[in-house]
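Forgive a beginner's question, but would it be possible to get a protein, spelled out as residues, together with the matching structure tokens, please?
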Amino acid sequence: MTSAVLQLAERGSVSAAAMTMRVAALVGASIVVSGCAPGPQVSRVKSEPPAAESAPAGQGTSSQGASPRPVALANGEAIMPAQLETRLREMAGPDVLDELVLESALREALRARGLSVTEGQSSSEEQLFIELLGGDEPGAVLAAFRSRRGMGDVRWKALLWRNAALRALTAPDVRVPASAAEQLHAIRHGERRVVRLIAVRTAEDLASVRAALESGDRFESVALAQSIDPSASLGGLIGPVSVADPAIPPALRKAVSQAAEGAMTEPIMLPGSIVIARVERVLPADDVSLELVRTQLEREALLRAQRAAMDSLAARLRSESRVTVIDPTLERR
């Protein structure tokens, strides 16, 4: 995965749809660091993720001295809790452990600052998700967003709490440059480029790609077959992107900005990958004036700055946490 290119999205793909990319840019790219709409604290009821989650009565629990009850029946055969739990830990245990570690660190940080997270703040997080998803049926899009990430009610509420906690800890220190709205206007309404890219890890892989392209293979076919970027599934298609967008690695921005429509770039060295890009189309700037959208862009710039601060804090808290993994199924492989 080309991590430098993926600065465009939250643990996602540079090939995501425009709506998804906008949500990613504002909401944060991992599922634990999204932004939330700035606003007043509307509730004084503390919202805390549960310290330990227990199953509802009769669902996989047992009374003292009794055998555990099955969680399901398959063709009349009982599926027992231990069978399910072991596989679930292997499948998602490290990610869930990471969430719990961050929540523990956030609780400690909130206590140190004399802060707490309210239900109102968590609700604001959810409202921002819905707002950014937009469309005629944002509820359906949100449900799909959660489904793709395996987020039921428990993990979703915990995500909102983490985001609200990160915002409470970082928002007072966030400052937005006066030029931020102008930069976003250039990104949203200036010239943009539809780009395909192929990313590989080694010089040998690059030689294979170049040989295929020189032999007449289509760029999108080579991307699908050899690229390690998530955009490979769409033939390397990303964008439209703006060369004014600082989320794009500078070397890629420069190469794409200098390439004519239909032209390929020379190999671009990025952290962890080598990229070749082709400019499919150049889209001219539109006629939307800065003053018409300034308020909207200033808010977006604030959300982006807050998201960056939240990302940074989350990474620091994780790195400073002392974690002893006892269950080997929770080790990342």
Summary: The longest helix spans residues 81-113. The longest strand covers residues 273-283. The radius of gyration is 23 Å. Confidence is low (pLDDT under 50) at residues 1-22, 32-46, 52-63.
